[in-house]
């Protein structure tokens, strides 16, 4: 199936993407389960979902750890769509690593106030142990999820307008390309 069409649906529509539902995302790799993954000390025990770029598998846990207690993952649909965003980013050659997206992302974060940066740190380098590549991938996936209607973080649209525009343009050009291929009988 063409990727732009897959972008309209879900993980089963992107060829080769597998879905798994472990009890906890931390069960995927127990050796790494308690290693800090985030600047705030969060670990895989705190993750709702995970996309493995190595195995093209989208994982969504049944439970996640908040503080010292385990709770059911509440936003399963939004988590799935966010992880599909990671899968789509990979399948499209990592738009999040493109010069165009990187420039738009930098423009967006330069425009943020200090308090906005603090509240949106998961999508910023400081929230990802100063790893800008991971931060851009998380921003890409969440922007994609918002474009698909999850609105799990309504601040994304207003704080990442340039990054959102790049993603919309790329998805729009893919949709046009897919229509051209269908019209040509491919």
Describe this structure as you would to a colleague:
Helix content is 45%, strand content 10%. Mean pLDDT is 83; it is low at 1-13. It has a single domain, classed as Collagenase (Catalytic Domain) (3-Layer(aba) Sandwich), CATH 3.40.390. The termini are close together. The protein is mostly helical.
Taking Cα atoms only, what radius of gyration do you get, to the nearest Å? 17 Å
Q: What's the main sheet like?
A: 3 strands, mixed
CATH fold-level label = Collagenase (Catalytic Domain)
CATH architecture level-2 label: 3-Layer(aba) Sandwich
Uncertain runs are: 1-13
Mean pLDDT score: 83
- The end-to-end span amounts to 11 Å
According to DSSP, the number of beta strands is: 5
Overall structural class, as computed from helix and strand content, comes to mainly alpha
| Sheet with most strands: strand arrangement | 1-3-2
Figure out the total of helices. 7
What order do the SSEs take from the amino end to the carboxyl end, as H and E? Answer: HEEEEEHHHHHH
CATH top-level class: Alpha Beta
Globular, elongated, flat, extended or rod-shaped: what is the shape?
globular
């Amino acid at each position: 199936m063409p990727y732009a069409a897959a972008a309209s649906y879900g993980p089963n529509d992107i060829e080769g993407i597998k879905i798994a539902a472990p009890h906890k995302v931390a069960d995927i790799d127990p050796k790494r389960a308690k290693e800090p993954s985030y600047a705030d000390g969060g670990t895989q025990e705190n993750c709702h979902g995970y996309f493995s770029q190595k195995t093209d598998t989208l994982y969504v846990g049944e439970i996640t750890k908040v503080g010292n207690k385990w709770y059911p993952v509440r936003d399963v649909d939004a988590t799935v769509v966010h992880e599909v965003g990671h899968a789509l980013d990979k399948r499209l050659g990592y738009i999040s690593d493109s010069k165009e997206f990187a420039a738009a992302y930098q423009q967006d974060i330069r425009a943020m106030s200090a308090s906005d940066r603090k509240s949106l740190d998961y999508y910023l380098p400081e929230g990802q142990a100063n790893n800008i590549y991971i931060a851009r991938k998380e921003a890409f996936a969440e922007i994609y999820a918002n474009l698909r209607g999850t609105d799990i973080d309504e601040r994304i649209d207003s704080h990442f307008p340039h990054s959102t525009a790049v993603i919309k343009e790329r998805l729009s050009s893919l949709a046009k390309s897919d229509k051209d291929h269908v019209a040509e009988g491919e």
